[in-house]
Design brief:
This protein is an alpha/beta fold. The chain has two domains: 172 residues, Rossmann fold; 93 residues, Pantoate--beta-alanine Ligase, Chain: A,domain 2 (2-Layer Sandwich). Helix content is 38%, strand content 19%. The strands form two sheets. It has a six-stranded parallel beta sheet with strand order 1-4-3-2-5-6, with helices on both faces. It has a three-stranded antiparallel beta sheet with strand order 7-8-9. Helix 6 packs across helix 7 and helix 9 packs antiparallel against helix 10. The chain is globular and about 55 Å long. Bound molecules: adenosine monophosphate. The site of adenosine monophosphate (AMP) has 17 residues, from helix 2 and strand 5.
């Protein structure tokens, strides 16, 4: 496995690999890797001859009072995990490599970027779209793998790929969970043992909505109410949002008729967690 730090090194490494082994699969990450990330790597390995992962804690997607400085950085352990999965190239740039001094070019997917996490994290999706566009230009993958755990991110990036004509397929992979249902996240390591238990309320709320949907309820307000009742039982959790939206546009739906994204974000102590499920089927 090659670990490369610069754009030039990455292009050189991939030029040789691409010629020999065909399709390039790409898994962008911020490191602090867990089984969720590794599931993306495995999907990429299964579908592509060459697999590239990136490890970059992207400053532009963090707000001024967010956890950029304390975001977990576990580079050596991450590389060992990626090597064991058979990754070919790890791109791990410094901030200056991705954002040269005075960088003023950003990618904004208007409208959709202001929904879900975009409301409480203004500028977050602008930072995500910008860094992913840069990474796509550098790596030039045939397929790029993202987690459904960040469903709004998937929606924003699908729009960006379509509208900026990136010649790649964006593959969304299912959310990987701990045995008790908690969605895996690099931020879970911030949680104390007590908070780790309290955090289960997010999944319980989503389960309550899924059950009510399965029982025949289609009214979005009634479904949401079922989730809110569960959240109310865990006073340690402070709800940011619980929404039923279109998975493509992230716009609120009134009725869960077709495929509906149920997305939740809540604070448990000082940690902001997100989770989601999709209910209904494609019409
Ligand atoms: P991050 O390092 O948090 O930026 O995540 C890198 C990629 O891994 C993103 O596409 C995430 O959606 C994905 N990811 C994070 N957690 C999970 C999970 N529990 N299951 C599946 N994918 C995940």
């Amino acid at each position: 496995m090659q670990v490369v730090r610069t754009v030039a090194e990455t292009r050189a490494a991939l030029w040789a690999l691409r010629a020999g082994q065909g399709t390039v699969g790409f898994v962008p990450t911020m490191g602090a890797l867990h089984e969720g990330h590794l599931s993306l790597v495995r999907a990429a390995k299964a579908g592509c001859g060459v697999v590239v992962a990136s490890i970059f804690v992207n400053p532009t997607q963090f707000g001024p009072n967010e956890d950029f400085a304390k975001y977990p950085r576990t580079f050596e352990a991450d590389c060992a995990l990626l090597e064991a999965e058979g990754v070919d190239v790890v791109f791990a740039p410094q901030v200056e490599e991705m954002y040269p001094e005075g960088a003023a070019t950003f990618v904004e997917v208007e409208g959709i970027s202001d929904r879900l996490d975009g409301v409480s994290r203004p500028g977050h999706f602008r930072g995500v779209a910008t860094v992913v566009a840069k990474l796509f230009h550098i790596v030039q993958p045939d397929r790029a793998y993202f987690g459904q755990k960040d469903a709004a991110q998937v929606a924003v990036l699908r729009r960006m790929v379509r509208e900026l004509h990136f010649p790649l397929e964006l593959v969304a992979c299912p959310t990987v969970r701990e045995a008790d249902g908690l969605a895996m996240s690099s931020r879970n390591r911030y949680l104390s043992a007590e908070e780790r238990q309290q955090a289960l309320v997010l999944k319980r709320a989503l389960d309550a909505i899924t059950e009510k949907y399965a029982a025949g309820e289609r009214d979005a307000a009634a479904l949401r109410e079922a989730g809110l009742r569960v959240i109310a039982q865990e006073p340690a959790a402070k709800l940011d949002y619980l929404k039923l939206v279109s998975p493509l546009t992230l716009e609120d739906v009134q009725h869960a008729e077709g495929e509906t994204l149920v997305a939740i974000a809540a604070w448990v102590g000082a940690t902001r967690l997100i989770d989601n499920v999709v209910i209904g089927s494609r019409v």
